Each structure stands twice: as structure tokens, then as C-alpha cells.
């Protein structure tokens, strides 16, 4: 098909003019103002948490003389053996499930990759822009029924790994749970084999790893876990390169991410129960 | 955000919203879902407006729309809405005037989401391979392979759909 033929298909599909939008520009601006206000409030609480974290860390170090055990992140604990900015941790008791979960992810990763540098990655970034530095995002502005988190794990040598973590509720589905997970994992669309196993507490795990020839040689290790709390956790690891778009070396020259299949499975299983969605 | 910046955002949103909406519709086939995605992107853009360079504002908004619509990690969120993918109109009720649209919609609905998005960005929005890769958060190699595969799949789907609807409407 040539360029004009494809455009013709799109013209046909669009048909008549779009329906009138349900919301106008004023509604968008009002919603944007609320986001800005909420973010400002979070940052204020984050700054308080940072100070609290330093005080707590010093006190803890004096008492224990060593690194604390890494766990129970949802409680908003404040130190870590891995290197990262203090803005990872949000004030204890913060009511936002997003930020409680951010702490949880950070602790799980710190335990899995001790001593490595963890960097929050904006979910959306355009070249040249100063991106939104928040780690967490809900899927959209109205549904509030899932969480997405991106983190870059830097190792002493080699390319860092881009981790994409999603936690979302299980939706009603036809067929079995395994088919449901395989659909989320696009197991039927791609050339990479998916594997199924059970976790230690009966979780259902679908995982895959290696070069995906259908995606231009993209290399990724993926684990999708169906848990007893009615959520699906999905962890995807890719090689991360500085231009932020090349997720793979491409064309069959890709290298495996340093975060392995076993790592992504362990991370997905270790994350705590899903946050309460508001 | 000061009043001048807000006025600039308002002008941008008014000027670009329809184009974003049309592209979103071509990717998902549902006006309501398309509108949700565009609204989400513009709200996020508003929040980042003071830090966004104007030449890249549209790319930023487009990236959010595409992420909202096709990010594989979030596919499940819209599973119920995607149930429309099968052609909603029986061949017997098709008129000649609507045949072209139904054939196009039916074929696009069966195209895998990432291939559909790639074709929309490359052939509807006329983006380069690199710009498309940025919008979809993937490599240039992935864009090329998805384009080739998408064109091949679309051609087959159009032939198949025309057999179902085209001939029925012509009689």
C-alpha cells in the first residue's frame, strides 16, 4: 500500500466530523490547576519527609551501626542501602496511595539491587523539555484504577536497565486467568515464548524473556503476576540508552538487560498488596 | 502559571485539540476513549506548561495520548471498551454510502494496537521514523518493522473485509 492509499483508509474511517467534546478548554484548565495544586502539596510534604528521613537515618545509624533491613516500604521508612535521591520517600502516613506505593517499589528494588543507583524516570518526556519528575502516574485523570512506575537501575558497568512497573486491577474476563495474563503480555502477538508457573503463595506467573523479533529486536524480560489481592503486577525490563527511545540495540544486535527474568519475577512477587484506589 | 502562559496554553489547546482527537480516534476507534486520552494529555501538558518548550509541546501531548491508548501495560484497563472491535453493523444494513467507512473501521479494529498507532503516526500525521519512535517510546528499528508489518496486515484485512461488506453493499 502506498502513502495515499493508507491516508485514504484513515479518511474513510474518520467519516463525519467528530462529536462535540464533552469538556471544553476551561474544563481542561480547571483539571490542570487541580493537578498543579496537588503536586505542590505533595512536594511540600516530600520536603518534610526528606528532613525527617535524614534525622531518622542518622538516629538509626547511631543506634544500629549498619544498614537497616529493607522492607515494609508502605510504612514510609526512610533509609536504604542503594543510592538514590531523598525524594523517593514520602512522608509517613501520606494518604496518597501512589506515594506509599512509590516507597514500596523503591525498597523492593533496593533489596534486590543493593548498592546500585536507582533513578526515577518520568513516564512521559519530550526531548529538550524539563520533564515531569514524578515517578508514579495513574492511567488517566478520571479512572484512578491503576499505577505505573518507571525506574532506571544503573549498574557499575554496562547499560542501565529501564524497569516499567504496572499495578492494575483484574478486570472481568472470559476464559481462564492464564489466558488473561497472556493477553496482557501480548504472548499471542509476538514471537517470544511465554512460560507459566506458580508463585510461593499460589500467584499465577506468566513470564518471557529475550529478543522479540516482532518488535525490531527489542530485548525485554517480562513477568506478569496475578495475585490474591485482585491485582495484576507487570514488570518489564529493557536495556536503557541515553537517547531515551532506543530500547534495544535493534536488528539482532541487542544485549540482554542486566535485570534478569528471575529479577523481574522476584520484583513482581515482592511488591506489597495493591494500594487502595480512591 | 501566569496569565500570559495560561493564554498561550488555551490557544494551543484550542488549536490542536481536534487534530489530537482525530489521531486518537484512528488509533482506538472510539470517540469517547479518544476524547479521554486527549483530555488526559492536555491536563498533563497544562501541569508541565511552564517547563515545556513550545516547539515540542505537540510532541509531548501526542506522546501522552499514544501512551494512554496503547501502552501494553495498561491494555487491560480498556478491555471492556475494546469489545467494539468486531464490526458493529450487520452487512444487511449497510448502504453504499457507509461501506467505505465500515470497511476501514473494521480493518483498523483488527490491526494490532502498536501497528495501528505506528501507521497513524507515519501516514496520517506524517511523522518521521524518529519522531514516531519518540511518540511510541520505542526504537527506530521497531517503528520500521511495525510499519512494514502493519501495512501488510492492513492490506490483508482490507481485502478480507471488503469481501464481507463491499460486495454486500454493492448488491
TrEMBL record, chain A:
Q: What keyword terms does UniProt attach to this protein?
A: Membrane, Transmembrane, Transmembrane helix
Q: Does the keyword Transmembrane helix belong to this entry?
A: yes
Keyword presence, Membrane: yes
Q: What is this protein called?
A: Uncharacterized protein
Sequence segments annotated as region (Disordered): 68-97
Membrane-spanning residues: 41-62
Q: Where is the composition biased (Low complexity)?
A: 73-86
Automatic annotation (TrEMBL), chain B:
Q: Which InterPro entries match?
A: RNA_pol_sigma-70-like, RNA_pol_sigma-70_dom, RNA_pol_sigma-E_actinobac, RNA_pol_sigma70_r2, RNA_pol_sigma70_r4_t2, RNA_pol_sigma_r2, RNA_pol_sigma_r3/r4-like, WH-like_DNA-bd_sf
Question: What GO molecular function annotations does the UniProt record carry, in alphabetical order?
Answer: DNA binding; sigma factor activity
Gene3D superfamilies attached to this UniProt entry:
1.10.1740.10, Winged helix-like DNA-binding domain superfamily/Winged helix DNA-binding domain
Recorded superkingdom: Bacteria
Alphabetical GO biological process terms: DNA-templated transcription initiation
Q: Which residues form the RNA polymerase sigma-70 region domain?
A: 17-77
What's the protein name?
A: RNA polymerase sigma24 factor
Annotated organism of origin: Actinorhabdospora filicis
For this protein's source organism, the top of the classification is: Bacteria, Bacillati, Actinomycetota, Actinomycetes, Micromonosporales
Amino acid at each position: 500500500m502506498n502513502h495515499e492509499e493508507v491516508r485514504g483508509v484513515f479518511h474513510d474511517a474518520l467519516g463525519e466530523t467528530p462529536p462535540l467534546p464533552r469538556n471544553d478548554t476551561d474544563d481542561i484548565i480547571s483539571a490542570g490547576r487541580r493537578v498543579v495544586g496537588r503536586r505542590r502539596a505533595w512536594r511540600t510534604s516530600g520536603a518534610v519527609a526528606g528532613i525527617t528521613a535524614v534525622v531518622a537515618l542518622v538516629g538509626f545509624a547511631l543506634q544500629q551501626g549498619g544498614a537497616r533491613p529493607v522492607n515494609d516500604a508502605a510504612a514510609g521508612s526512610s533509609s536504604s542501602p542503594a543510592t538514590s535521591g531523598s525524594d523517593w520517600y514520602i512522608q509517613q502516613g501520606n494518604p496518597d496511595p501512589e506515594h506509599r506505593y512509590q516507597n514500596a517499589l523503591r525498597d523492593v528494588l533496593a533489596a534486590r539491587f543493593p548498592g546500585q543507583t536507582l533513578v526515577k524516570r518520568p513516564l512521559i518526556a519530550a526531548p529538550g523539555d524539563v520533564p515531569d519528575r514524578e515517578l508514579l502516574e495513574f492511567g488517566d485523570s478520571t479512572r484512578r484504577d491503576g499505577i505505573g512506575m518507571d525506574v532506571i537501575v544503573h549498574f557499575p558497568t554496562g547499560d542501565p536497565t529501564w524497569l516499567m512497573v504496572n499495578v492494575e486491577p483484574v478486570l472481568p474476563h472470559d476464559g481462564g486467568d492464564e489466558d488473561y495474563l497472556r493477553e496482557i503480555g501480548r504472548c499471542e502477538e509476538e514471537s517470544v515464548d511465554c512460560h507459566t508457573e506458580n508463585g510461593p503463595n499460589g500467584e499465577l506467573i506468566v513470564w518471557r524473556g529475550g529478543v522479540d523479533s516482532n518488535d525490531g529486536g527489542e530485548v525485554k524480560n517480562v513477568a506478569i503476576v496475578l495475585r490474591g489481592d485482585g491485582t495484576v503486577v507487570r514488570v518489564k525490563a529493557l536495556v536503557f540508552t541515553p537517547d531515551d527511545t532506543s530500547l534495544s540495540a535493534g536488528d539482532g544486535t541487542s544485549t540482554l538487560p542486566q535485570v534478569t527474568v528471575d529479577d523481574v519475577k522476584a520484583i513482581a512477587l515482592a511488591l506489597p498488596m495493591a494500594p487502595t484506589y480512591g | 502559571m501566569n496569565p500570559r502562559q495560561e493564554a498561550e496554553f488555551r490557544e494551543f489547546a484550542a488549536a490542536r485539540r481536534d487534530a489530537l482527537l482525530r489521531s486518537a480516534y484512528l488509533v482506538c476507534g472510539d470517540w469517547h476513549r479518544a476524547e479521554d486520552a486527549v483530555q488526559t494529555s492536555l491536563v498533563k501538558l497544562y501541569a508541565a506548561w511552564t517547563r515545556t518548550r513550545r516547539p515540542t509541546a505537540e510532541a509531548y501531548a501526542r506522546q501522552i495520548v499514544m501512551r494512554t491508548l496503547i501502552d501494553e501495560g495498561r491494555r487491560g484497563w480498556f478491555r471492556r471498551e475494546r469489545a467494539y472491535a468486531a464490526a458493529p453493523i450487520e452487512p444487511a444494513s449497510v448502504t453504499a454510502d457507509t461501506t467505505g467507512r465500515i470497511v476501514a473501521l473494521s480493518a483498523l479494529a483488527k490491526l494490532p494496537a502498536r501497528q495501528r498507532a505506528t501507521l497513524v503516526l507515519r501516514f496520517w500525521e506524517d511523522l518521521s521514523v524518529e519522531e514516531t519512535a519518540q511518540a511510541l517510546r520505542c526504537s527506530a528499528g521497531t517503528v520500521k518493522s511495525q510499519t512494514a508489518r502493519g501495512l501488510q496486515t492492513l492490506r490483508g484485512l482490507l481485502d478480507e473485509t471488503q469481501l464481507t461488506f463491499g460486495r454486500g453493499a454493492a448488491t
